[in-house]
Amino acid sequence: MADGIRDKVAILGMGCTKFGERWESGAEDLAVEAFVECLEDAGIEKKELQAAYVGTHFDEVNVGKAALPIALPLKLPYIPVTRTENYCATATEAFRAAVYSVAAGVYDIVLAIGVEKLKDTGYGGLPSSGGGVNSFMMGANFTAPGSFAQLATAYGKKWDIPMDKIKDAIAHVSAKSHANGVLNPRAHLRRAISEDQIKAAPMIAYPLGLFDCCGVSDGSAAAIVTTPEIAKSLKKNQDIVMVKALSICDSSGEEAMYNNWDGSHFVTTRIAATNAYKEAGIKDPRKEISMMEVHDCFSITEMVTMEDLHISPKGGSYDDIMNGFYDLNGDVPCQVDGGLKCFGHPIGASGLRMIYAMYEQLLDRVPEERKVKNARLGLTHNLGGLPWMNVAAISIVGLN
Amino acid sequence: MFGICSYGGYVPKYRLNRGLVYAAMGWMNPANIANAAGEKAVANFDEDSITMAVAAGIDALNGIDRSTVDAVYFASTTMPYKERLNAGIITPALGLRDHVRAADFSGGIKAGTTALIAALEGVESERLNNVVVTASDCRLGKPSSPQELIFGDAAAALIVGSKDVIAEFKGSYSITYDFGDHYRGAFTKYDRQWEDRWIRDLGFVQFIPEAVNGLLDKYKLKMDDFTKVVYPCHYGGARKKLGGMLGIAPEADQNNLQAELGETGTPHSLVMLVKALEEANPGDKILVVSFGSGCDALFFEVTDKIKKLKSRNGISGCLANKADLDNYTKYLVWRDILPGEKGMRGEEDNWTRWSSLWRARTFVFGLWGGKCKKCGTAQLPPQKICVNPECGAVDAMEPYLFSDKIGKIASFTGDMLAASVNPPAVYGAVEFDEGGKYYFDFTDCDLESLETGMPVYMSFRRKYFDDRRDISGYFWKAVPQKEVK
Asked: What is the mean pLDDT of residues A259-263?
């Protein structure tokens, strides 16, 4: 009988580049940067790696298909290297594959690396992701902000909250992430922005303004995972970060086509969260989760996600957000490194970057000014796709 | 008895005030002040002659069993395709069967009445049951040309048949001349015309009486037999002269809608005829004359069935549902006269894969989804496995038409990032009242007026234009309706 991944795999080392507009660096350079840091942190030789999983999302503006374009610059030593791709959960999928291959007993030491070079498009925002050869013929002319913006109109209708109150809450969400980004030298956007500035910004997709949208960034992040025994032998007398849960949930088509979903929340995130807490043995996430990195592609996504993760009560994220529950000094700090909003969102790297943010907090490697007190359990969350059809991924990592 | 069994009309929502056009371009051709009064109807950025013909056709098909339609005749001089049957795109969009005859009628702008005569004769021969005749045009005049002010965009549709005839066809008379008043070559975007005085004095003032007198002589009729006379002629002076010459009483002279719509080309006589039918009473005799490379003259007698016709938008409904396009340069960008910068996102190259479109054709052109025979759930796009999680039946769908269903806005946005010649791109989730949900582009609306819960109806629109390969692609959009309170 399967009993989940809890405490079966340890993180031996991690690395993460500075995210941002890395005009001088290609995807290959970024991958090398994250990999070198990760290998050094793990304290092993490259030849000890037995397998690798590489996450990249866009073929069009990135390195192309397959894992080979990253295996070559890393000079991986003739080992199995496999590309994973699953929208914004791409890097979490690389991590999941690496973790599962160790848990399966197939390999002892495995690399997961995610990388994305987005700033070669020539314009702001993400390129169109496509959706099969016919999407432009029959789909709405939608972009990411326009798709996620609709959460706000549907959420307001569901809970009878006027748009100006929603704008107050999502402005606080973005202002908090900017405040956290200021403190983090590797973050993409490092400027404090006030809630008034956020609300006065030019409209991108009603009701989302410029500061409701996350950074479009270049970057890479990596992890090396191994068995708890090997981790303990290599990291004597040190804290070890263990994998507590890995949970993925894909839409079935119901949200998009069946009239029972109201458009105000993520069905997938709710299911993935319930499964993750069960796998990690968490009974009361609001009390037990120490900190989070969630998929704040847009501020409204973060607002509704607080409820979908079963942290805020349904319809109650407004109060929690406005009361500072998710601020750096709040009960469950969220986006402690700046989030997608300010740390940045190179799609194929984001899942691993979030785990990196939890890892450095758990191992007490961050300066006092941005430290989460008594961090024991960290949750990361990706949401790939559109509100009505998507993949939600949740990872929980913690100290042994 | 055979004749017209139903009618429908379509005028695009937007009106361009001619004074606005003159204010922008009058400096280049001050004589245009003569044509600068009133307003013209202009197709939205996502409309063309095909989409307007579909809208008129749907209006006309109200109350008609679609399975009784045997043919679709489309008349226009602004068809998006030279090769690829334009009526072949219109037919599935009207929700009609594949096994029908469809044809395009083009060339002179009298093609609308010529298509109507062909349909009438087909029904008379008893080879065809019901025929949809639809005419539509979207002609362009160059900026500062008189045509830019005179022309307008509209469509009309008639169902021709022998059951429940509202206007019996009594006869016709045609003349044909190669008269080069207006012309466009095969590769020309803008209308060109010869001198107005020649078109007016030789064209309208000679040809229309020739056709009318031909018909009167042939059927032993007098002008005062007719309750309404429908004929196009946007020259005000010539209209007065023709009225006098032909003895048309002022109350019989059907308004040519020049001040409200403009000269709409191929559909014009039919647009006027639809307006006349909207106001007609049993026993009325209507004379219809077209003009363009000659004339067709037709006459009809209205029956008492006209009182039983289901209500519809018609031309009058469309005339009442209008919005000002208060920006002349926006019109120029919509018509691709002024090349606005859509940004590099708008340069993305999407191939129309014809073999793939073929497989998706019932959904794309007809907005056919499926309804599960096991649980009754309506769903789109068509699915093999039922989306109802309690059901999940495999291959148990029957075709289900969504294009005639009403939905409600579940969520929406106005997107400034999406490439569009009419930003913000407005779109959102539509939940159909009888089940089914899809994310559609919204059109003919302002972001500011939208609310969740607002009803929408479906409209066939140009979804994209691939200028590298000259492909107009079509799909359905949602048109929000203000609720009548």
From this structure: 90
**C-beta separation of B317 from B239 below 8 A:** no
> Tens digit of pLDDT for each residue in A3-24?
899 999 999 999 999 999 999 9
At A163, which CATH number?
3.40.47.10
Bridge partners, B174 (sequence order): B296
Work out how many CB contacts closer than 8 A connect A with B.
Answer: 147
The answer to whether residue B427 neighbours chain A at the CB level (below 8 Å) is yes
A160 and A226 share one domain: no
CA A255/CA A269 separation, integer angstroms: 13
Amino acid making up residue B366: G
User: Judging by beta carbons within 10 Å of its beta carbon (0-12, 13-18, 19+), is residue B369 exposed, middle or buried?
Assistant: buried
Give residue B131's identity as a one-letter amino acid code. Answer: V
Q: Are residues A234 and A254 both part of a single domain?
A: no
B425: which chain A residues are within 8 Å (Cβ-Cβ)?
Answer: 140-143, 146
Q: Which residue has the tokens 């690496």?
A: A98
Give ipTM to 2 decimals.
0.92
Domain count of chain A? 2
- Residues A302 and A179 both lie in one domain: yes
Contacts of residue A212, defined as CB under 8 A and 6 or more positions apart, other chains included, come to A145, A170, A174, A198, A201, A204, A298, A299, A300
Q: Does B471 contact chain A (CB < 8 Å)?
A: no
Give the DSSP letter of residue A88: B
Residue A210 lies in a domain: no
Q: Give the β-pairing of A51-55 and A81-84.
A: parallel
**Number of CB atoms found within 10 A of residue A21's CB:** 14
Helix axes B86-93, B49-60, angle to 10 degrees: 40
A109 and A170 in one domain? no
Are B132 and B71 in contact by the 8 Å Cβ rule? The answer is yes
**Phi–psi pair at B334, nearest 5 degrees:** -55, -40
pLDDT for B219-245, tens place per residue? 999 999 999 999 999 999 999 999 999
Q: Do residues B224 and B247 make contact, with C-beta atoms less than 8 angstroms apart?
A: yes
Look up residue A219 and give its two tokens. Answer: 């970057």
* Nearest one of B89, B52, B79 to B352, comparing CA atoms: B89
CB of B350 within 8 Å of a chain A CB? The answer is yes
Element (H, E) at B448: none
Q: Which residues have C-beta within 8 Å of that of residue B99, sequence separation ≥ 6?
A: none
Task: Spell out the domains of chain B, with CATH numbers in brackets.
Answer: 3-334 (3.40.47.10), 403-480 (2.40.50)
* pLDDT of A229 higher than 90: yes
Same domain, A224 and A276: no
DSSP state of A229: H
**A160: contact with B, CB 8 A cutoff:** no
Mean pLDDT, residues A145-163: 95
Residue A247 domain flag: yes
Tell whether A161 and A64 lie within a shared domain. no
Q: Do the bridges between strand B14-17 and strand B323-324 make them parallel or antiparallel, or are there none, so unpaired? A: parallel
Residue A307 placed within a domain = yes
CB contacts under 8 A, B 356-395 vs A, are 356-357, 360, 363-364, 377, 379-381, 383, 387-389
DSSP string, B138-203: ---PPTTSHHHHHB--EEEEEEEESSS-SEEEEEEEEEE----SEE--TT--S-EE--HHHIIIII
| A64 in a structural domain | yes
Sequence-distant (6+) residues with CB within 8 A of B64 are: B5, B6, B130, B159
Q: How far apart are CA B341 and CA A36, in angstroms?
A: 44
**A114 and A155 part of one domain:** no
pLDDT of B348: 81
Same domain? For A82 and A157 the reply is no
- Where chain B has pLDDT below 70, the residues are 483-485
* Residue A372, domain extent: 144-187+242-399
